[in-house]
Structures are given as structure tokens and as C-alpha cells.
TrEMBL record:
InterPro entries: PEBP, PEBP-like_sf, YbhB_YbcL/LppC-like. Gene3D superfamilies: PEBP-like. It comes from Variovorax paradoxus. PANTHER family: PEBP (PHOSPHATIDYLETHANOLAMINE-BINDING PROTEIN) FAMILY PROTEIN (PTHR30289:SF1), UNCHARACTERIZED PROTEIN YBCL-RELATED (PTHR30289). It comes from the Bacteria. This is Phosphatidylethanolamine-binding protein.
Length: 210
């Protein structure tokens, strides 16, 4: 993780982004015509800013999510949240949750553990900070808008995941048994210091590239 990047580095890295093509939703290469899951949130609409409450500039808890249109034969669900615009070769993983029951239909606010919150007892995998919790959006200043991909996958079986599965383990399980997928994009942007001086806003939390 790149932490506390100065504005000049954020500007210099503006052209360096993992890219939407590399998020699991697109990299998985699911065939055309496969069922699509509708993923929404009561906190923000698709391609709109994520409220500060759910980022490193606020309480840093995970946002509420809902999903519908699961296909028949869904045995379990997986949630992966990635930053498509992180200045890294692959998107930064902000959350992994596996083993969600099909009948759940939603995740409540703060359901995923975070630094000051125990969560709702979910089976949580490792984020890019190697922690089994929600990693709040915290893009570097001056790097521009970051797109956070909330991806929900339906599986035809319930794989036996490790205690804290990482992206590769989950990707292989999805490759083997994913039958539908859905995507919700939320955005977050931290202006550079020169803009923040004019805003007289409260000081932001620790800065991290993601």
C-alpha cells in the first residue's frame, strides 16, 4: 500500500491506473448471455460519489448493499470490492466476503468488519492490506476520481474457502462455479492540497492509495 502520498506524486501518477478491465467482474471472462445480478445501495447510486461516512475521511464503515435477480440454482454468493483506479498493476482489493446465503438479499451498513467495528460475523477474506476487513476508500490527493467496483457473484455450489481467502483463491472458485454477476460503481476523489485550503474543510484521515 502507498500511504500519505504528497499531492505532487498523485498528479504524477494520474495516468497510472489498474483499469476496469482488470477488476474480477471483467477479468473473469464470463460468457455473454449469462444472468446479470442487480446490485444497488441505499447510500449512493451507480457511478456517483460514495458518502464520506464510508471512506477514510469519515467513520470508515462499509456501505449498505442490496441485490436482486439471482438465477435459479444459486447456492452461495461472493462479494468483492476493488479500486479500478489504484496506481498499481492490479486493482486494490477493499473487501472480500464469501459464503453469503442466496436468501440474504443484502448487507447492512457496517456488516463488514472495519478498524473500529466488529461487523456482522461474515466470512471475510483478505484485502490488499492483508487484513480481513473493509478497507475504506482513501485515494491519493490529486490523483483524480477513483472508481470502486462492488461486485456480486452467484455460485452454483458453496466452495470450501480458507479462513481468510485472498483474491486469487476467490477468483479460482468463481472461475469454476460462477453463474451470474452484478456490478455497482461508487466513486471517491481527494482534491490536492491547493484546493483543500480554499474549502476550510476538516482535516482528512491518513492518506492511502486506494
Amino acid at each position: 500500500m502507498l500511504e500519505k502520498l504528497p499531492d505532487v506524486i498523485g498528479h504524477a501518477l494520474q495516468g497510472v491506473r489498474a483499469g476496469l478491465d482488470n477488476i474480477v467482474f471483467n477479468a473473469l471472462g464470463m460468457r455473454e448471455g449469462m444472468a446479470t445480478i442487480a446490485v444497488t445501495s441505499m447510500a449512493f447510486v451507480d457511478h456517483a460519489p460514495i458518502p464520506a461516512r464510508y471512506t477514510a475521511d469519515g467513520e470508515g464503515v462499509s456501505p449498505p448493499l442490496q441485490w436482486t435477480d439471482l438465477p435459479a440454482g444459486t447456492a452461495a454468493l461472493v462479494l468483492i470490492v476493488e479500486d479500478a483506479d489504484s496506481p498499481t498493476p492490479n486493482p486494490l482489493v477493499h473487501a472480500i466476503v464469501v459464503g453469503l446465503p442466496p436468501e440474504s438479499g443484502s448487507l447492512a451498513e457496517a456488516a463488514i468488519p472495519s478498524p473500529d467495528n466488529d461487523g456482522a460475523g461474515l466470512h471475510v477474506g483478505r484485502n490488499s492490506a492483508l487484513q480481513a476487513m473493509w478497507l475504506p476508500p482513501d485515494p491519493p490527493p490529486g490523483h483524480g476520481e477513483h472508481r470502486y467496483a462492488f461486485q456480486v457473484f452467484a455460485l452454483s455450489e458453496s466452495p470450501e474457502f480458507s479462513d481468510t481467502p485472498g483474491r486469487e483463491e476467490v477468483f479460482e472458485a468463481l472461475r469454476a462455479s460462477a453463474i451470474a454477476s452484478g456490478l455497482l460503481i461508487g466513486t471517491c476523489e481527494r482534491p490536492d492540497g491547493s484546493i483543500k485550503i480554499e474549502e476550510s474543510a476538516p482535516a482528512a484521515g491518513p492518506l492511502a492509495a486506494g
